[in-house]
Amino acid sequence: MISRRSFCKKSLLIAGGLAIPLSCLELFDPKRLLAEKDEKGPRWVFLVDTRKCVGCGFCVKGCKVENEVPYDANVTRTWVERYVVTSDGKTHIDSPKGARDGFPNKGIDIGHGKLEEIKDDDIEKAFFVPKLCNQCDNPPCVQVCPVGATYQTADGVVLVDRSWCIGCGYCIMGCPYGVRFFHPVFHVAEKCNFCYHRITKGMQTACVDSCAFGARRVGNLRDPEDPVTRVIMTERVNVLKEEYGTKPQVFYLGLSKEVK
Amino acid sequence: MKNHVWRPLFVVLAVIALVLVARKFLVPADFGVGARGYMYGWHRAGNEQQWKDVKVKYKTAAFCKDCHPDKYDEMKESPHRNINCENCHGPALNHPDDPRSLTIDRSRELCARCHTRLPYPNSGRGVMKGIDPKTHNVGLDCVTCHWPHDPRKEGHQK
User: Fold this and answer.
1) Is A197 in Cβ contact with B54 (below 8 Å)?
2) Domain coordinates in residue numbering, chain A
3) Which residues pair with A131 in a beta bridge?
4) Are A161 and A142 in contact, with CB atoms under 8 Å apart?
5) ipTM
């Protein structure tokens, strides 16, 4: 026979136990919470390892073909810059045709078809830096668009509406990284969009696929298990022109102070 | 009040009404504020799908593998294993239907992208095997002596 005292004790215990929702017992992963703080879905970011880039320019070729940027016009969505620092303290920078054909000459392209030859012994350091759209969190190119033709999607990519762009060129002037240009065929603003048609299908961008050296990688910053996110969170990465407050989302490994 | 005071006001109201009516017809129905708010998200929503619908041209080695497993396997064992087939063979597009055969770039310039010797000490390029294309067997295709799928083997002997 159950006593009144133990009946009250047990029923209180059961009622209290039932009152604890299952979610109270769930263990939270702080990294996941941080990654999903704002919104669900991906946030595309890019990781460039300048130490691995050899300046072959396959990325530029792949990008131009994949995104139908006229091959012989001197415009490109992504390009590779060469930096040669000599012992006299000078920095020589070039990017012939955006490195569409790589760097076929040892001399530095100084325009008008002229090359500046540099002696091997004078080279203090020399390296290649791939550039592309930073898909900024505060994109200045989007702010200046007077008609709403360029915009940022929920996953962080800045796109241009070709049927809505009036070709005023404010965005081309507004981008501190110089990644925008006029499309010679459509006569509207054109830019890198991380191959939006590929990344939304689970593929890599054309430049990532064509890079044989792993110098370029695309990733999702809202996924803490993404290898690119891990590198960005744990290694010494840098961004370009941080002082402009644009919050760029292309991260560089091995960036040098000569790179602007 | 006098008529001449009211008349310009009617004109202004008529212009405003005209603008509102014209806006109704000219602005697409899906134009509005997107996920990033007024400052960054003001756009025509249908355009996102238009960008997603762009045709994929480079289909990657995973696509080539289905019909050319022998070439794929040979490449995977080779020092050139990280080079995508389409870097030299061109984009697959709708191959094998259109184009029926791909245009292979066998030029010296293609190999020279990586194998022109550049003495850059702090870059991956500095440790790459390189030649000077101005002196190294000028006029000959690289593939005459070097087999591109596996450069340890000998080239095309035709």
Assistant:
1) yes
2) 140-190
3) A79
4) no
5) 0.88
Cβ pairs bridging A and B (under 8 Å): 149
pTM of the prediction? 0.86
Q: Which two tokens mark A182? A: 């006029």
Give CA separation, A91 vs A169, A175, A256, A258, B95, in Å.
31, 24, 12, 7, 45
Which residue range forms the structural domain that includes residue B78? Answer: 60-144
Within 10 Å of residue B71's Cβ, how many Cβ atoms?
15
Helices (H) and strands (E) in chain B, counts: 7, 2
Q: Which CATH class is domain A140-190?
A: alpha beta
Contact B123 A210 (CB under 8 A): no
> What is the domain count for chain B?
1
In a domain, B14, yes or no: no
Q: Do A197 and B55 touch (CB under 8 A)?
A: yes
- pLDDT tens, residue order, chain B (158 aa): 678 888 899 999 999 999 999 999 999 999 999 888 889 999 999 999 999 999 999 999 999 999 999 999 999 999 999 999 999 999 999 999 988 999 899 999 999 999 999 999 888 999 999 999 999 999 999 999 999 999 888 876 54
Task: Give the helix ranges, DSSP H, for chain A.
Answer: 4-19, 30-35, 58-66, 140-143, 170-174, 196-199, 206-210, 227-234
